[in-house]
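User: I'm preparing a small set of examples for a lab meeting where we compare how different chains pack in three dimensions. I only have the primary sequence for this one, and I'd like the structure in token form so I can line it up with the others. Please keep the answer compact; I'll paste it straight into my notes.
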Amino acid sequence: MAVMTGWEAVVSALKAEGIKFVYGLPSSPADLYDALYDEPEIEAVMVRHEAAGGFMAMAEALATGSPAVCFASEGPGVAHLAAPLLESLAACAPVIALSPGVDRRKDGKGAFQETDQVGLLKPVTKWAVSVTNPEKIPWVIHRAFSLATNGQPGPVYIEIPRNVGRAKVEIPDYVPAKRNLRSMGDPKLIAEAAELVAQAERPVIVAGGGARRSGAHEEVQTLAELLGAPIMTTPSGRGIVPEDHPLAFGQVGIYRNRLGIDTYESADLLITVGSRNEEFQTGAWTHKAEDANFIQIDIETFELSRNWIPDVAVLGDAKLVLAALLEELEPQPQWAERKAANAAKKRELEQAVEAECLTDEVPIRSKRVVYEINQVFGRETIMVHENGSQDLWSYYSPYYKVLTKNGDIAPGEQTCMGMGVMGAVGVKLAKPNMNVVCVTGDGAFQMYNQDVPTAVQYKAPVTWVILNSFSLGWPKRGQTDLGGRYIATDFKVQPDFVLMAQAYKCYGERVERPEDLRGALTRALEANKQGQPAIIDVIVDETEVGPGFVAYETAKKVK
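Assistant: Understood. Below is the structure token output for the 559-residue chain.
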């Protein structure tokens, strides 16, 4: 027990939980920030927009697997957190969002910025709560970290009313939460799964974000190598194995390459590990062959049978379940033959894609841009994805290959524009020794470019590569399908991104010819190594989209 204010109790708890950054904008200095002043181990990262702080926290949480914290002032500040918390819920990111609330003695009287903040954020969080008295703060913070990190991870919102946060009372000592608690799968069901695996001739393993967060990297790779089975991933599952691995066949759904399309739809056994099997990851639930058996492994009961109904559903932690499954399997001679055949298919695809990416067409093809990023930035790089049509190319492997463990940060199914642009800053702060690149369209970049100075101020040298089509590519493509009825999708007035980079004290360069790409990216990387963020503005073909997206569009039209 110790006498302190409610906000001092919050800071003490955050320190005990190992929090290094709080992203946000101060409200009254008496709410959180005055208490942070005396805690040098936690850096207050001042953003230009509260949503940017939420996205930075989300990306940090996804990059580290540990909870991250953001803060907003009452009313409109909290409202700005709705989008990043929505995305955090979709991506299973353990974010703790804090804010003050109006003095409860004024509740209902129309106090300044009075808002039902818990009601506002309850639909986009695992738990939203208002603290009723300062003595309860340690329990609430402990509960928040426990809920955010256990089971299916996700965001939590805590409102601390002014009279609670500023009161100085005797507060109980804080006890850190137990994180990442694991549950084992039912041995009987694991044995049933092993029988299906042994019988399969064309198995495919799909690793989602849950596999990554479980730390099941070794188990996924070992299972694939034992079976000779391709590994495909969801966007959030990328980085479970390096994508130059001979059995890494790319992503699922609208993100599939040519080999992935053939492999997935001809599979006679689908094993999904920590994936929700959502619309984009399944091509609107059309991609699984009708006669394929299905094993689903997930830590969350809500996800089991949510979409496709599995033949065997195993509730449990991905790492533990896969380890138990491996113990049930005896190697078979044909598995080694299958491994060699699949590796040969992967080599053939990589050779074809390399030739395809070296196109000298103008406007520049986006696939060439992401290929060149791979060549320049190489390993020890984290790709932070944005959302749009042109930047979909950064999702496609082997056009861009994730070459390091967990070297990929993707949004969830909500795909909020701007998440990657600002998330890259949080990733770099959390992983300062990694190269960090965000591939973004010009539309998404303009939504949050005001927070580029945050990267400069807090010494987070990332590279933003803008695939500039002077338009909102995704809706404009839809307008093309409607007979060219273009409205409100072309940027007829757009900033000069190179001048913007200079104004923000970043390195900036515009690229219009493919032969200039590698030099520009090399200079951006060198600027990053010198501590300077970089903005590379690449003028691209607005019509080019990937094979998986074309297949998805075609399927939708047929339906």
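A couple of notes for your slides: The mean pLDDT is 94. The domain at 2-171 is CATH 3.40.50.970 (Rossmann fold).

User: Perfect, thanks.
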